[in-house]
Write a structure and sequence with these properties.
OB fold (Dihydrolipoamide Acetyltransferase, E2P), YdcP-like_sf, 5-stranded mixed beta barrel, 261 residues, mainly beta, globular, 3% helix
Length: 261
């Protein structure tokens, strides 16, 4: 199972405010897609390039203007490092696509709160995207398929013991329609008792992107997922509709005239 992923949604609060620090310019993305590029500085990342592919939602702006963006979708890709015409290494690059970009007018630096741990660039040399991935928006509800138990193996004999070291859950994302394996770290997890097709969600997840080398002719990006635990999604019962009360038919009848004739 490859855990393939084409894109994921960034947390809306991760980057903070964005200021244009270079001229906007047309750009051509992988696949020949046309876009407008916005070089921005954010409160969390000092240098970031955001792209908008819909020209009707890509407003012009001046340097030092605030840039308000819609939802940012991150598209991972495999980049190659070449030496003497030969591939010597690969790494995961990321493209940031915003639904829209609007001009928030000239920025007031007093309102720009640079994070204490501001990053020079958003590098993913080890593929870790946990900090800025919005797991709920990316995967939605997960449909539980099965769970297997990992047991401790004696390093001297390589024999499995009865000590549980974790679980591996297989689940399908309702948003991506892909099937994923998830390492569950809680040795006391109840995932092995979940019924098939139960809806579940992450508890304290982590994610790392890597190049899938299982198919040499089809290079793609896969994701390694783990979580402290997986929890059932609580289903809120719909309130029962109250049946309308029958009208009092007697009230519609003409009351008898009790006056003495």
């Amino acid at each position: 199972m490859s855990n393939s992923i084409a894109n994921f949604v960034a947390k809306p609060t991760f980057f903070g405010k964005k200021i244009l620090i270079g001229e906007t310019s047309p750009a051509t993305l992988r696949g020949g897609v046309k876009a407008k590029k916005y070089p921005v500085m954010t409160e969390k990342v000092a240098m970031l390039e955001v792209f908008v592919t819909n020209p009707r939602k890509a407003e012009e702006a001046n340097i030092m203007d605030l840039i308000n963006t819609g939802r940012i979708t991150v598209v991972p890709r495999v980049e190659e490092v070449r030496e003497n015409g030969r591939v010597s290494n690969t790494y995961i690059g990321l493209t940031y696509l915003a639904d829209s970009a609007s001009n928030g007018k000239e920025a007031r630096m007093d309102d720009f709160k640079k994070a204490d741990d501001q990053l020079a660039k958003l590098n993913t040399s080890n593929g870790d995207v946990t900090e800025f991935m919005d797991f709920e928006e990316t995967f939605g509800d997960l449909v539980f398929l099965n769970a297997t138990t990992d047991y401790f193996r004696d390093p001297l004999t390589n024999q499995a013991t009865s000590d549980v070291t974790g679980y591996v859950v297989t689940a399908r994302s309702e948003k991506t329609n892909e099937v994923y394996t998830i390492d569950v770290l809680n040795v006391n997890s109840e995932v092995s008792s979940f019924a098939p097709l139960t809806k579940i969600k992450f508890k304290t997840p982590t994610a790392r992107l890597f190049r899938d080398t299982s198919q040499a002719e089809n290079v793609r990006v896969s994701i390694s997922l783990s979580a402290e635990d997986m929890e059932k999604v609580s289903v809120t019962a719909k309130p029962q509709e109250t049946a309308p009360k029958p009208q009092n038919q007697d009230s519609n009848k003409q009351k008898p005239n009790n006056e003495n004739k």
